[in-house]
Each structure stands twice: as C-alpha cells, then as structure tokens.
Amino acid sequence: MTSLEERVGRLEDIEAIRLLMVRYAAAMDNDFDADTIASLFTEDATWSILPASDIAGTHVGREEIRCFFATLTNEYAWTMHNMGNELIRVAADGRSAQGTWYLVDPCTMLGPEAGRKDAVLITGRYDNTFVKVDGRWYCDKLRGTTYAVSTWAKGWVAEPWRADISDE
C-alpha cells in the first residue's frame, strides 16, 4: 500500500506531463515556436514521426529538434493540434513515464506551387517517454504514428495521404 503522499506525488507527476504536452501542442499551434518546443525535450531526445516524409522523419537532440521546427512555417500556414485520450503511466521510481495521446489536427498546409493552400486533416497517435530531471519532466522520446494526412475536400477514405506527402 502506498502512502497518501506517494499517491499525490504520482498525480502531480501525471499532471506535469499532461501540461508538458499541452505546452507542446500550444507551441506547435503558435507558428511552431521552435525554442519553446525544444525546451520541452531532453538534450539527447528523439523526435520521430512515421511514416517519414519531408515534413516528418526523425530528429535527435534538442538543437536538431529546434532547427527542424524553425522550418515548418514553410509547410504550414495554420494548425490546431487536438490531443486527447491520454494515458500516462509513471514508473514506480517516479523518474520516468510513458504516455499515449491521439491526435486530430485540422490545418492549412502549403503546397509546392506558389499560393497553394490545402485544408488538411492529420490524424495519428503519440507514444512518448518522459524523464524527470532536477524535479522537472521532459520528453525524452516522442514517437508519432500518422494515420492519415488528408485534404478536407477528399477526406481520408478517398485520399489517406495528400499528394506530395506520401512516400512515393
């Protein structure tokens, strides 16, 4: 049986991790605020979204993650990350955790042709690991699985992967 203090500490850890992901989504939707996004990761973190494309892939280290997000305003005009159904599991030692979130992200993606803008719906799932460093939680590994990147006009049944996004 764990003490009340341990149980409250675990709940505080879960809330801190949940708020970390809320800050991540808010920074993504704030023109991909690269500095804020990078600050949520450990120095040697891995950010990986699959399947890989020109706007996804794997980036290792806080600085590489920051540099990657600094370029995304060339790909997106607007995003609204809706993340939910989170499940956060804190390890017994209170120093690491795992979390899962589902993503529904309506956005405006820019196309390769000048002036092209597409209303797009991105769906996926995050499976992340977190570590507590000096009393603060950081994302150590973010692994996203993309289910669809579909134009709003065609939808995910007719077009699960927007043209110029899919691995061809």
What's the CATH topology name?
Nuclear Transport Factor 2, Chain: A
Order of helices and strands: HHEEHEEEEEH
Strand content: 35-45%
CATH class equals Alpha Beta
What low-confidence regions span 5 or more consecutive residues with pLDDT below 50? Answer: none
Count, helices: 4
Q: Provide the residue-averaged pLDDT.
A: 92
Count of folded domains: 1
Under the CATH scheme, the architecture is Roll
Sheet with most strands: 7 strands, mixed
Radius of gyration: 17 Å
The proportion of residues forming helix, as a percent range, comes to: 25-40%
Q: What is the strand tally?
A: 7
What this model shows, in words?
With 168 residues, this protein is an alpha+beta fold. It has a single domain (4-158), classed as Roll (Nuclear Transport Factor 2, Chain: A), CATH 3.10.450.50. Helices cover 26% and strands 45% of the residues. The protein contains four helices and seven strands; from the N terminus they run ααββαβββββα. It has helices spanning 4-28, 34-39, 62-70, 155-158; strands at 41-50, 57-60, 76-79, 82-90, 96-110, 117-133, 136-151. Strands 1, 2, 3, 4, 5, 6 and 7 form a seven-stranded mixed beta sheet that branches. The termini are far apart. The model has no long low-confidence stretch (mean pLDDT 92).
